[in-house]
Amino acid sequence: MLGISYYISRIAEAFIIGFVVAYLTAPISIKLAHRLGVIDTPKDARRVHKKPIPRFGGMSIFLGSMAAMVIPAGMNSNIKTAMIGGAMMYILGIIDDIKDIKPAVKFGGQLLIASIVYAMGIRITFISNYFGAAVTDAHANVILSAGVSYIITVFWIVGITNAVNLMDGLDGLAAGSVAIMSLSLAYIAYIHGVRLGSMPVCVALVAVAAGCLGFLPYNFSPAKTFMGDGGALYLGYMIAVLSVISPLKRATVVGALIPMLTLAVPIFDTALAMLRRALKHESIMAADKGHLHHHLMAAGFGQRRSVLIMYGIVGIMGEVAVLISRELYKDAFFLFLVAFLYLCIIIVPKKSKKGIKRIITQDTSDLEKEYFTEYLNYERERRRELREAAKAAADAALDEEEANTEINDKTNNTGE
């Protein structure tokens, strides 16, 4: 059996290769974007950028992480399968970036790719059983039938892929968040290490994180380039697939709970978006300005601070997953409550409307107006107080001058 030092060397190699390749190819992707006309123009209110920006940066993430994943691919056949599916998902994304295909066609392509990956052997075949008797194996895992396994696997891959895609709404948000989530899952795999055969998955997740971090200097606000659907779909797919490859899944305490907790923020945001659109009787595929990052922007935090706040919540959930993987349930529970509290603070406005439905369906455009009106009222009050203070100071100065004049007159009269 290979020693832990061997895998640490592979982790370091994967990180360096992924980061360097992504960083060096990002400028090339910008030039290609201009040549191919893959430019994101701010044509609606949902977009927060004000000028056209290239959106072909996913190429650098794809090349960087793929170059680094050659290392773990030599250790685990499932990593090779994940790379094949990742290449297909990236191609689907760049076709959408260039041709702007219909959402239904893109969704169908995602289903097809997930089905191919399932057929090639990447499957969720069991869930840990802690709630009663069922058809289980020697490890008390609930064994899923082929049909249920297929549905859950495809739903997981397509769901997380689109969750990350929906997250890509602010400069650096998706790339940084996926890097944090990948490193959290990589650490969980590292903890359980050689014993459970999870080290190849750890190296692969580090490769994905490295590709994101190499791209991030060009994507953080103010962004020079966007990752586009090519990068977002690829990242969502890779983190979904790598989180359920068998060795890593066996390292979890409650089956798929660990990856679900690690990816809790995009899952929560996507579920909230689907609920919001259903309550408003809109298509669940429709775009809107109700995502978590839109709420932060509406509150006036700006892009950088909004992204950093989201990084913090994603990081907390990653730590929750790490604690649960080590069976530290009490610590994980209280940390989870902290993250959940922050999420509630984000979606509930300062002047909350009555009813949960009103809160969920509230458009952030209305919030922006409320916050702007509140700011104007604050400015009016502040300026009124300044005027009153200036007037009081002027009156005091005038009184002092009159008093000095009176004293001088008395002095002059006494001298005469």
Can you tell me about this structure?
By secondary structure, this protein is an all-alpha fold. It has one domain (4-362). Helix content is 73%, strand content 2%. It is built from 16 helices and four strands. The strands form two sheets. Strands 1-2 form a two-stranded antiparallel sheet. A two-stranded antiparallel sheet has the order 3-4. The longest helix is centred in the C-terminal third of the chain and has 52 residues, at 364-415. The radius of gyration is 27 Å and the shape is elongated. The chain starts with a helix and ends with a helix. Residues 129-139 and 250-255 have low confidence and may be disordered.
What does the secondary structure layout of this molecule look like, with pairings?
Elements lengths: L3 H33 L2 E2 L12 E2 L3 H16 L3 H23 L3 H17 L6 E3 L12 E3 L2 H22 L5 H20 L6 H21 L8 H15 L3 H5 L6 H6 L1 H16 L12 H7 L3 H24 L3 H19 L8 H6 L2 H52 L1
Helix pairs in contact: 1-2, 1-7, 2-3, 2-7, 2-8, 3-4, 3-8, 4-5, 5-8, 5-11, 6-7, 6-8, 6-13, 7-8, 12-13, 12-16, 13-14
